Amino acid sequence: MNALYVICGLGFLSLVAEIANLKKGLAIAILLGIVAAIGLMVTDWNTGLHYYNDMLVFDNFSVAYSTLILVIAIFWFWMSGDYFSRQSHETDRSALILFAISGAIIMVSFNNMAMLFLGIEILSISLYVLAGSNKESLLSNEASFKYFLMGSFATGFLLMGIALIYGATGSFHLATITAFISSNSSTLPGFFYAGVLLMLVGMAFKISAVPFHFWAPDVYEGSPVTITAFMSTIVKIAAIAAFYRIFSFCFGAVQSTWGIILQIITVLTLVVPNVTAVYQSNVKRMLAYSSVGHIGYILLAFIANSTTSTGTIFYYLTSYSITSIAAFSVLHEVENAKTTTGFDGLYKRNPLMAVVMTIAMLSLAGIPPLAGFFGKYMVFTQALNNGYSGVVIIAVITSLIGVFYYFRVIIGMFTKTGEEGPISISSSSSILMVLLLALILLIGVFPDRLISLLN
Amino acid sequence: MIPIDYYLWLSAVLFTIGVLGVLYRRNAIIIFMCIELMLNAVNLVMVAFSNYLNDASGQVFVFFIMAVAAAEVAVGLAILMMMYRNTRTTDINVLNRLKW
User: A220, A231 in Cβ contact below 8 A?
Assistant: First the structure.
């Protein structure tokens, strides 16, 4: 909980820094602040304290996810230093990012529907602005506007769901709703089920599951690349955790209502984005589709067993977001170099970036011994053990399709020849890339600690 | 006293009008208003249930929704202004640069 205060305080500090002319030390202050927040968050482990009339709860689930969000946030700030320093509005941008992170922490630790709604909105409203932060670019405007329209449309569905569930159960409190459902399961009114399905639609928009994903590739492509990295890691973690918290903890007793619909959504989310990604020539858009595809594997773990898959989902999200940050840090440097050929012949122009990108692509494709492989392996075994062999076969086929489009990037980097000269990157980005590379290998070789963390 | 069903049907109709408006209208301002209509349908359900259940928390939630919706529209209109400066139109059919 103290970590949340620190993050919000840092957000206000960034706003004050503009007035008080403290911009010089701001980046260092933010970095130190987030490290302190991680420390404070870790001390909450195994306490399970409830705050604000039981509105927020920091049990092990939310502490683990909040820590993951904060760690990824450090990598993100490290990667995107020039997003702040190169253009104007440095303090506004860092304040918005910090408020978005605080929204993400609320989303993983809510214990009341009001907090879920506020967390989602704090996160989304900050991101609507950030997606359009490249004001002169029409693509960025369009991304921001589409994100805004789809986000608020989804919020409407989510709120209608919350309102109907409130009417049926008489409470916004997750524990009260759960208790009410289990004691009155036969006499629940029809609009309660309508409410659950409306919430499912609203959350499916937020996690960008097919068929509610169509905004995601457009928004990811149009936004500045650092914001895309933020959206496909931190926002995804928070949205999946919120989804898990509602549908596993709260609506587990009425799984017969939403289980079959979620299965259909899962199969669609596995097939559609992985097939569409094959036809993408733009690497940023390909990564957007691949991030939607990875949601499919996480949902597969969720439908396999919605109560014991916590560790698997946490491991999958960790490996996926660290790998994504690595891929986006390379993409960021390539876009900074303003080349026309993109990734073609990258190995000759900068071997380190090519190697990091290769490892990231291999990990996303699920090649052993990298982190992505164990994530997929555990999802598949868990789903097989619970009798979802049909969906697992589809998932294996889609991940083979995935191998195809990930390898196309790798082959382009090593065999094609780009006409431009070498790309030079700063030493801090090199250190970040090497660190992320080491983490991908480390998590892949020693997965046990992370998996057993939440089980 | 008016039965709760009437409120539910009224807000269901309002919500549906809002959803259809978002899906079919092409003018960005009208889409904003339709989203507001959806949120107000939710507010109506909340208040009706709150009165029906004799529980104030539904009405408190309505305040949250109103405050957040105001913030959302402020941001949304700013985004629309930014878009208008570059395209000189509020028709969302110009948003076609990003597609596969």
Answer: yes
Question: What are the tens digits of pLDDT across the range A26-40?
Answer: 888 999 999 999 999
Tens digit of each residue's pLDDT (9 = 90 or more) over B33-76 = 999 999 999 999 999 999 999 999 999 999 999 999 999 999 99
Chain B environment of A162 (Cβ under 8 Å): 42, 61
Residue with the two structure tokens 């269901």: B12
Residues in CB range of A225: below 8 A, 6 or more apart: A284, A328, A331, A332, A335
User: Max Cα separation, chain A?
Assistant: 71
* Terminal alpha carbon distance of chain A: 22
Q: Would the CB atoms of B98 and A218 count as touching at under 8 Å?
A: yes
Place of tokens 């050929």: A341
ipTM for the complex shown: 0.95
Q: Is A280 left (phi over 0), alpha (psi -120 to 50) or beta?
A: beta
Q: Which two tokens stand for residue A192?
A: 């309660």
The secondary element (H helix, E strand) that includes residue A342 is none
Taken in order of first residue, the domains within chain B and their CATH numbers are: 4-90 (1.10.287.3510)
Residue-wise pLDDT for A347-375, tens only, equals: 888 889 899 999 999 999 988 888 889 89
pLDDT 10s digits, A185-232: 888 888 999 999 999 999 999 999 988 988 999 999 889 999 999 999
A296: CB partners within 8 A, 6+ apart: A209, A210, A266, A269, A270, A273, A274, A395, A398
Identity of the residue numbered A288: A
- Asked if B87 reaches chain A (Cβ–Cβ under 8 Å), the answer is yes
Asked if A337 reaches chain B (Cβ–Cβ under 8 Å), the answer is: no
Among A117, A120, A160, pick the best mutation site for testing chain B contact (most B Cβ within 10 A): A160
Query: Which pLDDT score is estimated for A339?
Result: 65
Question: CB under 8 Å to A322, separation ≥6 — which residues?
Answer: A72, A75, A371, A436, A439, A440, A443
Question: B80 vs A144: CB contact, 8 Å cut-off?
Answer: no
Alpha carbons A223 and A216: distance in angstroms, whole number: 11
Cα–Cα distances (Å) from A399 to A161, A164, A365, B33, B71, in that order, read: 34, 38, 7, 42, 41
Residue B72 and residue B42 in contact, taking contact as beta carbons nearer than 8 Å: no
Contact A167 B45 (CB under 8 A): yes
Q: Taking CB atoms and an 8 Å limit, are B45 and A163 in contact across chains? A: yes
Q: Does A280 touch chain B (CB under 8 A)?
A: yes
Q: Provide, as residue numbers in chain B, all residues whose Cβ is less than 8 Å from the Cβ of A141.
A: 79, 82-83, 86-87
Q: Does A167 touch chain B (CB under 8 A)?
A: yes
Is B61 in contact with A114 (CB distance < 8 Å)? yes
Kindly write down the DSSP assignment for every residue of A355-400, as one continuous string.
HHHHHHHHHHHT-TTSHHHHHHHHHHHHHHHTT-HHHHHHHHHHHH
Tokens of B44: 């109506």
